[in-house]
Each structure stands twice: as C-alpha cells, then as structure tokens.
Design brief:
about 150 residues, mainly alpha, 7 helices, about 0% strand, elongated
Length: about 150
C-alpha cells in the first residue's frame, strides 16, 4: 500500500471517528434510552453520562491526532506515531471483538434494523482496526530499516 493511500484511509478514519464522537453525545436520545436511564440510581446515571463524554473525548483525540499526523502515521520512521497507531489499532480491535462476544445475539438476531446496525458497527470498527494496524506495521518496518 502506498503512503498516499494509507494517509487517505487514515484521514477517512479521522473524519468518521469525529462523527462518531458527536453522535455518541446524542446516543441516549437517538436510542430512546432516557426512560431506562431515569430508572437507574443517580450514581449509575452519572457514571453513564461521564462515560459517554469521555468516550467522545477519546474519539475526538483519536480523530484530531490522526487528521493532524496522518502523513507521519502512514509509514514514516516516527516511533511515537507507530506507537499511537498501535494503541488505536488495539482499541478498535478490542471494540470489534466485544461487538461479537459481549452483546447478546438476542439484541439484534432476527431483527432487520438492529442487525444492520450491528453489522455496520462491526464493519466500521474492523475497518478502523485494519487501517491503524496497517499504519503501525508500516511504521515498524520503517523503524527497522532506520535502526543501526
């Protein structure tokens, strides 16, 4: 894969992660979860809200750093960018695995829209994982070449 292609894939990943950071802030309203949340104890509700904000902040950090340093992440010999790519790749790989192993199939199996969402999320998380692993592997290769 050329560095230009990988840079473009990283930039697409950055844009879509920024979009998810914003969507995540409205997830309760979009999914109609407010009534369920209101039934939880106050501490559980507050933990949920803080978690949503911090996930959005994390995604915004991933997106902005990827956007700003896509060229450096796409195979140059910057150890810090290789490390960052590896960390984000690990994050999305774990999220992809949890998408299939943690959620009960009864949430989506046999229901069209939930199945589409489940498969769409799996595709997006898997794609982000792949793009960041490609960047990490390119970086590792570049670092091997530049080491004495």
């Amino acid at each position: 894969m050329t560095p230009h292609t990988l840079t473009m894939l990283l930039q697409v990943s950055a844009i879509t992660q920024a979009a998810l950071a914003i969507v995540n802030l409205f997830l309760v309203r979009m999914m109609g979860w407010q009534a369920c949340l209101n039934q939880l104890p106050l501490l559980a509700r507050q933990v949920f809200v803080v978690h949503c904000w911090f996930i959005s902040a994390t995604l915004a950090i991933f997106a902005s750093t990827t956007w700003l340093f896509a060229n450096e992440m796409a195979g140059s010999a910057h150890a810090s960018m290789t490390w960052f790519s590896s960390c984000i790749a690990s994050f999305w790989t774990l999220r992809f695995i949890l998408q299939w192993t943690y959620y009960r199939r009864s949430h989506w199996m046999g229901r069209l829209w939930p199945t589409v969402v489940h498969l769409g999320c799996s595709f997006v998380y898997g794609s982000w994982s792949l793009v960041y692993w490609l960047a990490a592997f390119e970086g590792w290769q570049s670092l091997k070449v530049t080491q004495p």
